[in-house]
Amino acid sequence: xxxxxxxxxxxxxxxxxxxxxxxxxxxxxxxxxxxxxxxxxxxxxxxxxxxxxxxxxxxxxxxxxxxxxxxxxxxxxxxxxxxxxxxxxxxxxxxxxxxxxxxxxxxxxxxxxxxxxxxxxxxxxxxxxxxxxxxxxxxxxxxxxxxxxxxxxxxxxxxxxxxxxxxxxxxxxxxxxxxxxxxxxxxxxxxxxxxxxxxxxxxxxxxxxxxxxxxxxxxxxxxxxxxxxxxxxxxxxxxxxxxxxxxxxxxxxxxxxxxxxxxxxxxxxxxxxxxxxxxxxxxxxxxxxxxxxxxxxx
Length: 298
What we know:
Number of helices: 2
Number of domains: 1
Largest sheet: 5 strands, mixed
CATH topology: Tachylectin-2, Chain A
Radius of gyration: 17 Å
Strand order of the largest sheet: 10-11-12-13-17
CATH class: Mainly Beta
CATH architecture: 5 Propeller
């Protein structure tokens, strides 16, 4: 398997890139303490922006931020929406933001509290809620709960794509995504995306020396992982990755970069074009376009 770096760009005027989605040739980028959502073309040129929160400072203070860490494209009431999820690691972060993607009502969004769903996660055994990744698989939404030194388990949470509508009744199943026997140290999942082309779940993970879901820590390596035939495995108690690639070793451009998210531009018989986002806690955002070619089938 070969990884080729096609393009990279450092955004010095957009803080803390945390999640990105690709839809109709537009990249939708959010930051965990950014007041705006940024829209970019495939070459990372800004097209538009939507103000999500009123904030006078460049970065929303840690105590106030919604900590939008995950995103997914979902179908809701027969329309396409961008779903942005707060990490739910604190009360202020227990929310989702739902933004219409159809041209007629583009940029319209609503914010929905997820406190009922978070309580349901805790009751299901999620010891420290910290949602960092999301992706749609059919009518399901798959969330990833990031592990840390004190709670090293990385969980995949299967629920309904519209879980926010009836949170107390939303379907829920948790699986351990066992990535740490393949990584050299404790790594936490940071992003998810899914390809129906060969039913593969892709994820990013990174090592960070922190004991909890709130504090930042020293940045280590970042990883790209794959799970084949994911639809058959979503009800398993333990899911083993089929491939984990240390990005820092695959290309020096990723050395010291904390990869936060991944999305797919294209996936066909020639390979995959991914977009990756990094946030090194310095108020900037790194963007990487990579091509992955070679054997990706089990």
